[in-house]
Amino acid sequence: MIPGPYLLYLGHSADPIGIKTSRGLATFRPDDCVGEFRYDDCPLTLGLKRLTIAEGASAGSRTLVLGIANSGGTMGADLIADAVAALEAGMNVAAGLHQRLRDVPRLVALARERGLSLFDVRDPPADLMVGTGYPRAGRRLLTVGTDCSVGKMYATLALTTALRARGIAADFRATGQTGILIAGGGIPVDAVVADFISGAIEQLAPARADDGWDVIEGQGSLFHPSFAGVSTGLLHGAQAEAIVLCHEPGRAHMRGLPGRTLPELAECLAMNLQVARLTSPSVRAVGVCLNTSALDAVAARALCERTEDVLGLPCTDPIAFGVESIIDALYAPHA
To answer: InterPro entries, alphabetically (predicted)?
Structure first.
């Protein structure tokens, strides 16, 4: 486990989606966060107390979490300098970037000198096996998306919480850096060699016999040219009994790909079900989760109702309205 409490890093970030890891920790583990570190040119905030690195250490932070993401997941000179400052202030450093902290000699040497640790969250297990697709016991739900960063992790956590509130055994299975930091474990599927992705998910959500659920966090989108491979491996490895589609209304284009539009919801659902049937022939869709944070409550509710009418599935914003309708659908009799 990464020692808490945490100082959350925003740095110079100007992209709200790019700080989703820091935001996820602030949302789901607020008691473990002492504040946020950001520069004057950063227009974003998590609503936490703004602290310098020295102030964060004085406030009791044990780890600076570099909770930002960029294309390629690399660390620039400024990020490395801030990590150095954190180590010099007596904090460990954690990051979920593709570029590893352990590959920066200056950080490794300083951490060793100060008796501190570097945590690379995007490290998959070393003993992964290739997937088989053979049937295994247990009930599994997978979230899928029209695009990256549309709320799959939020929906997965909300569904897990709602199942537990009904007295049903349920486990959140994290597959991305933010989810892993929140849950304290998981497999960063986008860092797994392609041949092992489905096997990694079979290992993450193994057979179970308690009639409980593994609620698996989805990644990417089958319609995103950059990340569809990860989404496919997740669908095959999950062998999900049920899928929930996640979407952000009003998004102008696929993340990072101006000019490429998002798929229609019905089209996206149909494709995900088709791919999932390779290893789970009876898979079914049980709901849609919309990220309506840009809409007012009346417009958000109306959009959910229209989506329900079009798709014939319960539709909700898991943060604004909860996911009870989807849990009801999960347990409703079906053909």
So the answer is: DgcN-like, DgcN-like_C, DgcN-like_N, P-loop_NTPase
* Residue at token pair 């409490």: 5
pLDDT digits (tens, 9 = 90+) for 149-192: 999 999 999 999 999 999 999 999 999 999 999 998 999 999 99
Give the residues across from 199 on adjacent strands.
Answer: none
Q: How far apart are alpha carbons 211 and 118 in whole angstroms?
A: 38
The residues, any chain, with a CB within 8 Å of residue 196's CB and separated by 6 or more, are 124, 128, 129, 130, 131
For residue 243, the surrounding DSSP H or E stretch is strand 242-247
Q: Are 172 and 160 in contact (CB under 8 A)?
A: yes
The DSSP symbol for 257 reads: B
Residues 6+ apart with CB under 8 A from 121: 2, 94, 95, 96, 177, 180, 181, 188
| Alpha carbons 234 and 141: distance in angstroms, whole number | 11
CA distance 224 to 208: 32
Written out in words, the top-level CATH class of the domain with range 139-331 is alpha beta
Start-to-end CA distance of the chain, whole Å, equals 44
For tokens 């179970």, the residue is 208
> Which residues, at least 6 apart from 257, have a Cβ–Cβ distance to it below 8 Å?
224, 225, 226
Contacts for 90 with CB less than 8 Å, ≥ 6 apart: 57, 114, 116
User: For the residues 109-119, what does the mean pLDDT come to?
Assistant: 96
Q: What CATH fold (topology level) applies to the domain 6-120? A: Rossmann fold (3.40.50)
Please report, for residues 54, 121, 288, the alpha-carbon distance to residue 111 in angstroms, rounded to integers and kept in the order given: 17, 17, 45
Tokens encoding 68: 């930002």
Every domain of the chain with CATH number 3.40.50.720 lies at 6-120
C-alpha to C-alpha distance for 36 and 46, rounded to whole angstroms? 7
- The larger pLDDT score, comparing residue 161 to residue 335, is at 161
Stated pTM of the model: 0.91
Write out the residue limits of the CATH 3.40.50.300 domain(s) in the chain.
139-331
- On the question of pLDDT at 71 being above 70, the answer is no
